[in-house]
Amino acid sequence: MLKTFAFLIILFAASGLYAQKKFVISGNVKDEATGEQLIGASIRILEIPNSGTSTNNYGFYSINAPEGNYTLLFTYIGYQSFARKISLRKSQTVNVSLSTKTNLQEVVVSANKPNNDQVTSPQMGLEKLNMAQINQVPVLLGERDILKTITLLPGVKSSGEGNTGFYVRGGASDQNLILLDEATVYNASHLFGFFSTFNSDAIKDVSLYKGGMPAEYGGRLSSVLDVKMNEGNNQNFTVQGGIGLISSRLKIEGPLVKDKGSFMISARRTYVDVFLKASKDTTLQGSILYFYDLNAKANYHFNDKNAIYISGYFGKDVLGLKNTFGTNWGNSTGTLRFNHLFTNRLFSNTSLVYSNYNFAVESFSTTNSFKVTSQITDFNLKEDLQYSLNNNHTLKFGLNVLHHAISPGDVTASESSGINSKSVEKRYGFENAAYISDEWKAGDKLTVLYGLRLSGMFLQGPGTFKTYDAAGDALTSQTYGSGDVVKSYYNLEPRFSASYLLNEETSLKASYNRNTQNIHLLSNSTSSSPTDLYVLSSNNIKPEIADQVSTGWFKNFKENQYEFSAEVYYKWLQNQIDYKNGAQLRINQDVESQLTFGSGRAYGLELFLKKKYGRFNGWVGYTLSRTERKFDAINNGNYFPAKQDRTHDLSIVGIYNLNKRWTFSATFIYGTGNAITYPTGKYNINGLTTYSYSERNGYRLPPTNRLDVGATLEGKEHKKYHSSWTFGIYNVYGYHNPYIITFRDSKTVPNTTEALETSIFSTAIPSITWNFKF
Known about the structure:
Elements lengths: L1 H16 L5 E9 L10 E4 L7 E2 L5 E6 L2 E8 L6 E7 L3 E2 L2 E3 L5 H9 L4 H4 L5 E4 L1 H4 L11 H5 L5 E3 L7 E3 L7 E5 L2 E2 L4 E2 L4 E2 L6 E7 L13 E7 L8 E6 L3 E11 L3 E10 L1 H6 L4 H4 L2 E14 L4 E16 L3 E17 L4 E18 L6 E21 L2 E21 L8 E2 L3 E15 L4 E15 L2 E6 L5 E7 L4 E19 L2 E12 L1 E4 L10 E4 L7 E14 L4 E18 L15 E17 L4 E16 L8 E2 L6 E10 L4 E10 L3 E2 L2 E7 L2 E6 L5 E2 L3 E11 L7 E9 L9 E6 L7 E6 L6 E9 L1
Parallel strand pairs: 1-7, 1-8, 12-17
Antiparallel strand pairs: 1-4, 2-3, 2-5, 5-6, 9-16, 10-11, 12-13, 14-15, 16-17, 18-19, 18-51, 19-20, 20-21, 21-22, 22-23, 23-24, 24-25, 25-26, 26-27, 26-28, 28-29, 29-32, 30-31, 32-33, 33-36, 34-35, 36-37, 37-38, 38-39, 39-40, 39-41, 41-42, 42-47, 43-46, 44-45, 47-48, 48-51, 49-50
């Protein structure tokens, strides 16, 4: 396979020799104040129409032109544009640093006009989140949160009140690939979903792909959330942080070698456990409830052609009730990257990536003490290359080898416990992939992004592997040794998207993409849980497959200050997984016997209006959609709503800059209630009421709606430090949004059943945070 890619490089390079003699301009675009690489900065040659390009995920660009004198224009949203005159007589390197020292009007005029990617780019379903806006969106308890912010976008739905889980275009929560510096984050939530693992202080760039997924991404059906950490300031040492009601954070960054290397360390911790110790309740005094995050990154640029990066994330939740039970879970990731410029056309990124997710649940009961543990560990080797053939073709190709090791669960019990110790066999497997794609500017109006991804899954021993019939009875059983291939799957995943310009401010787009998924989440809870179980594709579990088509109309107006888009999509889902009624998923060696397999479909309309600049900005997003599943063993084989099905979903975000010191913001959401299964009958067994259920997800929770407001007060300017105050109110009018509904025998009316609705936040929740930087 490597020989094939080498041949393609030689072929593409040779084809350039027969074209008109051109020279290459390449380099990096950085932030002048910090040295951070700017992702997606635009570069244009003013004298050549339609000659634009942009920096890749590592700040590198390459563009070519015939011999002559030219003006290069560099622009990036929120930065002052920069023009550089060059005399092109040979290929040359042009590195540029952009400054944020500009007023608002300059940003609108110079940075906005050329930056029209929403219309011109062939990429569909891509949302780029601005960190400055994320930091102003009001959220629960003042904790700035990436995951909560993306649920305010059309096509993205929250999994519940206060929850960081999310669904994209009808996909389940495990069908989202969440990456932090290229490392997979399996559980991106703290405190059972009320906060995300992403500390905004440590984040530089956030990209969400809802459809038209580029060929370099794979392994999940619905979306990719690609999060990249700050690299650190290579000019000056800085310290910043914040102190809030339940947590504090601190970030330190600075140069290792000025202009060549830098580091960044960011930490966050809650201190609810401190308040518990002060409680008069003796039970609470011995309880534990906290989480922490630690992000770290360092880099060094040997020269213009070679750079190395190392980054890591470490986070953990600890929760325990005195002398009763305790649970903890956490993620650890590590990424080692090496960037190399083979030529001024060929850029390489080589990555070695580590990811680990684990949890433990422990009972301290004297009669039933036990501990349950589980973990998943990944090692990933990636090679990604970008070759700029000419201004009309940008090629990307690469390889990926990912090793999974899953420990489904071990129970360790004391001798006096009524529970027996038990261990479920570990599972091992490789996911390999190769891809190639090309962004082709086919003319002044048409741009096409097309590619192909080949994915392979190899389930390996050691262990005993069974096959099951539809009733869950074992048909065969075979034992394999270490490294033996138990089952393998191969899938081709074509990717295509295109944009056609109707005029400078309007375009039509269309896309088709196929994705496969070989690691699956098993859960019969209504929301994501730290103890949810992951399994690999196997003899019984086939890779999940999704085919999605989408088309849309995109319009910018008022000199690109406003963006509007209308997208429709349809998604076919194969080999979907659900649990049988009464399934036992935890600590079960035969867990695959508890599963049923079927299909699904999702379709919808997404409307998005966004104001990007000015004192007042924000967006309105609306989604009209359906999400359905079909299993022979559920609801008599008929289509039924998936739990994430939500017909209407509306979000409104507004941010108003009153003056240099005060900024006000507000968000409003409304959504149809999630599909849910209610009991339709009951019977009595030995004095205990047992409920019977009919159709799966045949009912709805009540609709949800909520208003949140926030304000930021900037401190007076000082030469050595800066501070600000952030205020917020979550759920302003105290609406009782339903979190869960349970059923019980009525205590006042005999022989009747009553529904009990539980709301987590039934009153307004205020917050205040002091932020500082020096």
